[in-house]
Amino acid sequence: MKFSEFEYKRPEIKAFENKFNQLLAEFDNSENFEAQIKKLDEINFLRSEFSTMYRISNVKYTGNTTNIEFKEEFEHFNEITPYYEKLINKFYNSLVHSKFRNELEIKFGKYLFNMAELIIKTFKPEIMEDLEKEIQLSTKYTTLLSSAKIIFEGEERSLMGLTPFEGDVDQEVRKKASKARWEFFSKNSEELDSIFDELVKLRHDMAKRLGFTNFISLGYANMRRTDYNPQMVANF
């Protein structure tokens, strides 16, 4: 199946939330392990549908930031993602406190619960506005990079379009392509520095409010790193 053949349908967060909360309540109130597994499958299917629509929107927008339709869809996801993350955090809280946790661990492995406990630490309702701001800044960065129009070898190219030339067998071609890329970053350095500065301050503040020492630890948690930590990386 080609990517162009995937059907896109905008998720409405209120309807998603109602359905999600219904399934989660049924998950919590399951009378036996088998019933809870069934509800777990339904929750994961609902999450998968949301994630698929997000990916389609993301790919179509970042592939062409002038596409008005998917600019609106991408912005829609930016608005609803913090609410989605709130629901996912709620789900993982239910998972780790399941009365059938032992059976779930046997079926799915302990890693799932290690990850769940890590994810729970990365969210509190108090940081909802910060998450929205973080997404806005990340989108601003993505849009800036995606908007690159660099004339190279007689054609207008994006940053991704320069990549094949940076691996060319001809050293001069590689050099010119690399120079073209970094000229773009140089011309946009002021805006890129501003985005970076805001993100650093915002993420550090979020980390502190979540109980982390700084964003490094929160960053590892956001990447679901249950198997290694900053100290192990430093030693490596």
Quantity of strands, as a count:
2
List unreliable stretches of 5+ residues: none
Number of helices: 11
For the record, give the distance between the C-alpha atoms at the N and C termini, rounded to a whole number: 42 Å
Read across the widest sheet, the strand sequence of neighbours is 1-2
Give the SSE string.
HHHHHHEEHHHHH
What value does the average pLDDT take? 93
**Which structural class do you get from the secondary structure elements?**
mainly alpha
Strand content: under 5%
Shape: globular
| Main beta sheet | 2 strands, antiparallel
Helix content: over 70%
Computed CA radius of gyration, to the nearest angstrom: 22 Å
Describe the fold and architecture.
Helix 9 (189-209) packs across helix 10. The protein starts with 12 loop residues before the first helix and ends with a helix. It contains eleven helices and two strands, in the order H-H-H-H-H-H-E-E-H-H-H-H-H. A two-stranded antiparallel sheet has the order 1-2. It is an all-alpha fold. The longest helix is centred in the first third of the chain and has 31 residues, at 33-63. A hairpin with a 2-residue loop joins strand 1 (150-152) and strand 2. The protein has helices spanning 13-28, 33-63, 68-96, 101-108, 110-120, 128-146, 159-166, 171-187, 189-209, 215-222, 230-235; strands at 150-152, 155-157. It is globular and about 70 Å long.
